[in-house]
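REVIEWER CHECKLIST
Item 1: Sequence provided? yes
Item 2: Single chain? yes
Item 3: Sequence as submitted:
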Amino acid sequence: MLVKNLNLLFGLNQVFENVNINIPDGKKIGIVGVNGSGKTTFFKAILGIQEVDSGNISFFNKMRISYLPQIITDEVSSLDISVFEYLLSGRPIAKLQKEIEDLYVKSTISDEKEVIKILQKINRLQQELDYWEPYSAEEELLKLISSMHIDDALLDQKLCTLSGGQKSKIAFVRLLYSKPDLLLLDEPTNHLDSDTKEFVTNYLKNYPGGVYIISHDIDFLDAIVDKVLFLDKRTHSMELFDGNYTKFQKILKERELFLEKQALLQERERQRLQKVVDKYIHGNEKKARIAKDRQKKLERLEKNAVVVEKKLKTANIAIDQERESTKHPLVIKDLCFKYDKKAKRNLLYKINFDVSRGERFLIVGENGVGKSTLLKLIVGELHPDSGDIVFGDKTDIGYYAQEHEQLSLDENLLDNLNDFNLTDNEKRGALGKFLFFGDDLFKKVKYLSPGERARLAILKLTLKKANFLVLDEPTNHLDPETQKIVANNLKDFPGTMILVSHNPNFVKYLGMSKIMILPEGKITYYEDDIVEKYHHLNCQK
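Item 4: Structure as written out by the authors:
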């Protein structure tokens, strides 16, 4: 792939500036950079769904490209077809077979000249059909389904009825089945259990085509990639490094240390030369000559000065409560719920639990058992079919939704803070602490990267100053540095917390006290083994 003179701006915000880079075909490339550096935007530019201001991205050979986004689009999520139908549509076998069949029928009623054209077209379509391996395709799909731990019962379900994690996993299977020359994967491990992740890792390592991966999962990147493409938000540039992510980090750190030392030495030399100039510039002829000589050296030094890019700031996050809750901020009795009211089986059936003030309550279970649904019932986005959700008089809820539904996508960042009675200056100050500056403030939320949306959602959570936090996968889409900052703040949060998370290290760090296991609703004290088990099983359903 050849990137030539690539420039892209969002408003006044420069994303890429005169980028030129040559990436060999068929390589396994890790795409890295802080949130907002343009990683997902780069994927969209490759696909042609993001216009660039100038320059172009081209391939040395014709490419079939498949893309797995971080967030599965509503268009896919709402499809009223079965999971298996959706998976089969990853290869256009049925469509091509129908076209060929229709052309053969047409050839029987056409003249000789027309028949020649029809047969030529049939030949082209047959070559394309052969690429998709129609006689072994379904067997290959079934192997993928088995290896990715997709339950047989799930295959007959409507795609639109699946949970977010299930949709992501199904989309991943379809993508692998689609047999592209180049895979574009944006945070592909967000919804993978350990066994599935191991299968995907080996599959991608041996994949015959190219693989470009955006991921915050360092172990996953290290196991697969042989090159790293670094998107530098400070300089709006890209640079290609040989080796895996750990090697890239080491090279980058050594380079920055070297540049810092060089800059320090140059600054000392600049100061020394400047002192000579200042001392002798107004002296006698001999001293003035010395001063002018040092002045020329000073000019050369400044012209060739080592530039050390300013280090990017980290988010300044502080999560606190405005007031203390009552002793029991939440009690749930005999809670039942199902999406399809005609269905015989409940998604959640007679769930009972109460949460004490200051408690850290973790909800685990395989995808599709109702974890996110339970949180939505607690915050009032859904209503139970039966049972009670009772809050204490002083319970103030702060909700972090997995896909950031609490954000207004068509409003800019400033307008997204309108619920908090802040002046414009206070809004700007709050956004600045979360690394949103200048023209960013007027950008519509729908144009933010998933990582930037996550930061904005956490900002709104901090402004709420709630004493009861309801958190659904709060580390998804966040870079490792921001994950650490969020974890440190939540660890010291004095209020109560209900959490759904597939991140064992994050959960352990927060010091959870109890665990509820869905769908049965069993409650037990926190144990690492339980969390690891459900991390392992996370997406098998």
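Item 5: Key structural point noted by reviewer: Residues 466 and 472 are 16 Å apart (CA to CA).
Item 6: Recommendation: ____
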